[in-house]
Amino acid sequence: MRKISAEYIFPVSSPPIKNGIVIVDDSGTILDVVSQDSELKTQDLEVCHGIIVPGFVNTHCHLELSHLKGEVSEHKGIAGFISELVPKRNSFFPEQIKSAIESAEDEMIRSGIVAVGDISNTDHSFEQKKKGKIAYHTFLEVFDLVPEKAEEKIAEAKSLFTKLKSENASITPHAPYSVSGKLMELIDKLKQPFLSIHNQESLFENELFFSGTGELAELMQRAGVDVDSKRRAKKSLLFVLGALIETKKILLVHNTHTSPEDIEIIKHYSHGGECEIVLCLCPRANLFIENRLPDIPMFLENGMKMTIGTDSLTSNHSLSILDEMKTISKHYPKIPFDELITWATKNGAEFLGMENELGTIEKGKRPGLNLLKGMNEKLELSEKTFVQKLI
Predict the structure, then answer these.
(1) Are 116 and 135 a contacting pair, CB within 8 Å?
(2) Does the pLDDT of residue 95 top 90, yes or no?
(3) Topology (CATH) of 56-358
(4) Which residues are CB-contacts of 330 (< 8 A; sequence separation ≥ 6)?
(5) pLDDT score of 149
């Protein structure tokens, strides 16, 4: 058993406890959370300087792309990013890919991440996931614009599901611009608990839907894809939410160009809470690809539920949720820390269906414990803030 104290304990499920103590057993299960003025005997107390928070939950990652770190240029937009990514992703030896995946997972563990919503197009990350070092929900991603190939793509994803040998998986669409209406329909008919989809990462996404023009349209034309099939004269978000009727929880990832009008669309399709739509923020990837951030304060003002992801090492310089939080805080300093930590822990655990174990510091849970050091007296993040994994 360990008794660990700090200047503050942030259970997240309840207000911060000044000079609090977390009591955990040898398995990491929380036995109690108390203040130092309780009747608890404080012998063998581990005194930490900083604040203790739950382990981080990374709701959007592409672990299998870790070998492409430094291989793709920054600030090229999504079309430029894809153009560089596609020819390079399969130009490495299997052992290089495997080694990069293992190193990337080690980086996430060191940075205090305990759970990941991970995108997989292949089985490259499956062996590492089976080691159980991190809790994963694997989003088996499919994409294809040819309606006649939709059933084939679903069959391929189901084959990957069988190979993964885990119930913690969903078959999920890549993005509005890369999935046919037929494929989206078949995904929805699976009636999965939840899924994830890239959303409004580029202004050219809506242009593609409205007129079949723009950089994404040009990228598809070069690949021999029929752009006319994407001309639906409506926003890409309407295509997604209009197709996913049976799906009750949807994670919209990136949202770089999501507007107030889009937020109203999201509210409408939530059907008064019947469908939960959550926004995943990957700010450092947004800056890497588009050199732009979403309007996060607008999301907050409209009561949007948010989580945080890292995207991949192809579009980021680290897989650190703390780095993502620091980036948000730097650009939007009025967003309080208690909001950020909720997005980074509790909300992510709830979306991935892991809230019974992770996300908050409560009796009976095993959320992992992180110590944040280098915060100022106002409990604000700074460039000096760093994380030390305690459990």
Answers:
(1) yes
(2) yes
(3) TIM Barrel (3.20.20)
(4) 383
(5) 95
Torsion on CA atoms 162, 165, 171, 174, rounded to nearest 10: -110
Domain ranges of the chain: 1-55+359-391, 56-358
Predicted confidence (pLDDT) at residue 35 exceeds the cutoff of 90: no
Rounded to the nearest 5 degrees, what angle is found at the Cα of 13, between the Cα atoms of 319 and 336? 60
Give the integer Cα–Cα distance in Å for 104 and 319: 7
Name which of 313, 343, 311 is nearest 325 in CA terms: 343
Q: How do residues 223-271 score in pLDDT, each as one tens digit?
A: 777 776 666 658 899 999 999 999 999 999 999 999 999 999 999 998 6
Mean pLDDT of all residues belonging to the chain: 94
H-only helix segments in the chain: 77-89, 94-110, 126-129, 150-164, 181-189, 203-211, 215-222, 236-243, 260-269, 283-289, 296-301, 321-331, 337-344, 346-351
Question: To 10 degrees, the CA torsion angle through 356, 358, 364, 368?
Answer: 170
Confidence of residue 164 (pLDDT cuts 50, 70, 90): very high
Question: Which architecture does CATH list for 1-55+359-391?
Answer: Roll (2.30)
311 DSSP 8-state letter:
B
Please give the backbone phi and psi of residue 130, each rounded to the nearest 5 degrees, phi first.
Answer: -65, -15
Classified as helix, coil or strand, 161 is helix
